[in-house]
Design a protein that fits this description.
This protein has 332 residues and is of the alpha/beta class. It contains 10 helices and 15 strands. It has an 8-stranded parallel beta barrel, surrounded by 8 helices. It has a 4-stranded antiparallel beta sheet with strand order 2-3-1-4, with helices on one face. A two-stranded antiparallel sheet has the order 5-6. It binds phosphoenolpyruvate (PEP) and manganese (II) ion. The site of manganese (II) ion has 5 residues, from loops.
Length: 332
């Protein structure tokens, strides 16, 4: 249940009330104080005159639910906006991992040359094998920061556990929570205490309900800037790396107020279908696309089989524009 308190109630009073009710309290951007809890189904006796409005839910999808906030949340990324009424699809490109200054500079220049704004690159890589490249860590993050400073790009990189979350929050413009880290309470908690946009990737074995509950951790802790990212789930199919759940995307668009970004690169795991999948995703009217691209994919240190060459990325970008336009969106 969400209780919206009267404007006359102070933050301190709200905090005391939240403790009493074993609930969370947050102050929204438009200065409403909300108390959220899953246990309550009715306004507690004695509080009636302190409550301006309330919402009852039958699941723990609350702050993210359209029944609470019917309009899609608007998120600022640098000087760009996604969500709200912006009708913009943020095309995020860059390599799976930051590998060297030369490599990430080439990717930064690609993004710049296309008039795009957002560069990705993993530094703390959540690998399945301890023998695989684990990322450059802090040094990689500093290379991304260098690209941000030199080219004026916004950057996105992932946190794989809570040991480095503070440095990712400090330096990255969007904090990516990887699919394997979707349940990491340390990361979710830290992300709830910043106002920077947080992109949560769906765990590949997670239901939609579990996915939105991860978002609720961040929202109920006080960060309203949450973006969901569908990147494929594990099914019985082994021909592709994962299965991109477009039905799930339709469900999220229908039931939640959160912007949704799609990542076909990690879903398919191969380059051959990425441009057509990206066009299919764009046709759904989405808030962003995350596509891996590398100056020389053959020698990529992670996810080599799915990264587009810069030429392929450029071609794909041009082919996305008319698709986005057809559904009233603009690629940014
Ligand atoms: C990535 O974006 O490079 C990545 C590791 O993604 P995921 O968490 O979706 O596997
Ligand atoms: Mn990757």
């Amino acid at each position: 249940m969400i209780l919206q308190l009267h404007k006359s109630i102070s933050t301190q009073e709200a905090a005391n009330l939240a403790v009493e009710l074993k609930a969370f309290h947050i102050t929204t951007n438009d200065n409403h104080i909300l108390i959220t809890s899953s246990g309550m189904k009715e306004v507690p006796v004695g509080l009636e005159n302190k409550i301006e409005q309330y919402w009852v839910f039958n699941s723990d999808m609350q702050l993210s639910a359209k029944s609470f906030l019917p309009q899609k949340r608007q998120i600022c990324i640098g000087d760009k906006i996604i969500g709200g009424n912006s009708m913009q699809t943020l095309l995020i490109g860059g390599p799976c991992s930051v590998e060297s200054e030369e490599q990430i500079r080439q990717s930064a220049e690609l993004i710049m040359s296309l008039g795009l704004t957002t560069l990705r690159g993993g530094c703390y890589k959540p690998r399945t094998s301890p023998y695989s490249f684990q990322g450059l860590g802090y040094d990689g993050l500093m290379l991304l920061v260098k690209m941000k400073e030199e080219y004026g790009l916004t950057i996105i990189t992932e946190a794989k556990d809570a040991t480095h979350i503070e440095e990712v929050i400090e330096h990255s413009d969007i904090i990516q929570i990887g699919a394997k880290a979707m349940y990491d309470q340390g990361i979710l908690h830290a992300c709830s205490k910043t106002t920077k946009p947080v992109l949560i990737k769906r765990g590949f074995g997670s239901t939609l309900q579990e996915f939105v509950q991860a978002a609720e951790f961040v929202l109920s802790g006080g960060n309203e800037n949450v973006i969901l990212c569908e990147r494929g789930i594990r099914t019985f199919e082994t021909g592709t790396r994962f299965t991109l759940d477009l039905c799930g995307v339709a469900w999220l668009q229908h039931h939640t107020n959160l912007p949704v970004i799609l990542d076909p690169s990690h879903a398919l795991g191969k380059t051959y279908g990425i441009p057509s999948l990206a066009r299919a995703c764009t046709a759904m009217g989405i808030d962003g696309l995350l596509i891996e691209t590398h100056p020389n994919p053959k020698v990529a240190k992670s996810d080599a089989s799915q990264q587009l060459t810069h030429e392929e990325f450029t071609q794909m970008y041009h082919s996305l524009k008319p698709v986005a336009e057809a559904v009233g969106y603009k690629i940014i």
